[in-house]
Amino acid sequence: MKKTVMGMKAAVKGKRGSVKGINRTAWGKRDIAFCALCFLCTAALSSCQSGPQTAPMPAVPDLVLYTAQEEEIYEPIIKEFEERTNLMVKVERGSSEEMTGRLENEEEKPDWDVVFGVGIETLEQTKEHWQVYKSPEAAFITDSFQCEDNRWTSFSALPLVIMYNTNVVTYRELPVGWNSLLEPRWKGRIAFVDPRRSDVYSAALVTAVHTWEKKGDYLERFMENLEYGTLDSMQEVNAGILDGRYSLGVTMEESAQALLSEGADVDYIYPQEGTTALPDGTAIVKGCANPDAARQFLDFTVSRDTQRILVSDLNRRSVRGDVPPLPGLSPIGRLPLIEMDLEELSREKKDVLARWNSILSRQNAGGGAWNDMVPETLF
């Protein structure tokens, strides 16, 4: 910079230059402009490099959502909602038990606007936390999936089935219902999730016990046939049956149908004694920060477009009467469903889980290796 300034002074003062034909006045102006530009650039760079770097402020979500669904279920639904509405959704995922605990925590209430994909029996038990709202789409929901006081809205129906590996189970051995799970040939070969970890499997156990009409204790005989061993998730159940580690097990229709559609060596039956098709649903949190966005999301979940995606892409059953199931599946009204209201289900669920724990305690006292710690409910 010093040499440039000295040269600039010489150019201004000098009356005779060694280079002819150059306008010295113009040259000096260019030098002054060049120096000024250098100074400004240096100052700008210095200001960029000095001082602490400030991170951009995080975007404030338009909707805060809690879900008990697996990512492969909630992600495409939320992505489609964001694209159609230009709203940004923040997702928190956990179990239904975690949801209940946080809602009842008086010291630190969650900032959720809406809960999505939670079993309706849990939504019914916690309905004091939900805002009354009747969606315009509710008129199209099948009567059996309606909420009388509009505290929650059904999203999808989840029939329970018994799935088996077709390479392991012969035609003569095919299961026909819940009673088939007590056959000695399947001892240690049944895939089942600890019902204390899963609302789905506690419902399956309640259904099996509820439909038992023979002598003896179904629950005790079933646990003995499990060899007091259970799995941690439905994914483990499906994978275990698929690779032949287990001959058969209980899962949801959507999982079995998806594997069957992909050409897997599995098939499934609806228990002849009766099964359940408890829906999961959506509810708006009372006093939430974004009620308009929450209502918009709830309406979206039961819109005809979304329910069609639910069937075609996620292999689930729609709760709408005007959206048929996948080709090859019977309408839900033709399935052998048991009749049990939510209050009865909750009561029998408590009884079954209490007896489950009692049997495990007895097994442990006799030297069994079962872990009777009550695990966290995951789904």
Question: Roughly how many Å apart are the termini?
Answer: 71 Å
Q: Structural class of the helices, strands and pairings?
A: alpha/beta
Task: Spell out the helices and strands N to C.
Answer: HHEHEHEHEEEHHHEHEEHHEH
Mean pLDDT: 84
The total beta strand count reads: 10
Uncertain runs are 1-30, 32-51, 373-378
If helices are DSSP runs of H or I spanning 4 or more residues, what is the number of helices? Answer: 12
Spatial shape: globular
Radius of gyration: 33 Å
How much β-strand is present in the residues? 5-15%
The residue fraction in helices comes out at 25-40%
Major sheet details: 6 strands, mixed
Strand order of the largest sheet: 2-1-3-9-4-10
Characterise the protein shown here.
The protein has 379 residues and is an alpha/beta fold. 39% of the residues lie in helices and 12% in strands. The protein is built from twelve helices and ten strands. The chain has helices at residues 2-13, 24-49, 71-85, 96-103, 120-125, 199-210, 218-225, 234-242, 253-261, 291-301, 304-312, 342-365; strands at 63-67, 89-93, 114-119, 153-157, 160-165, 190-191, 248-252, 266-269, 279-284, 317-318. The strands form two sheets. Strands 2-1-3-9-4-10 form a six-stranded mixed β-sheet. A four-stranded mixed β-sheet has the order 6-7-5-8. Helix 3 (71-85) links the parallel strand 1 and strand 2. Helix 6 (199-210) packs across helix 12 (342-365). The protein is globular, with a radius of gyration of 33 Å. The N and C termini lie far apart (71 Å). Residues 1-30, 32-51 and 373-378 have low confidence and may be disordered.
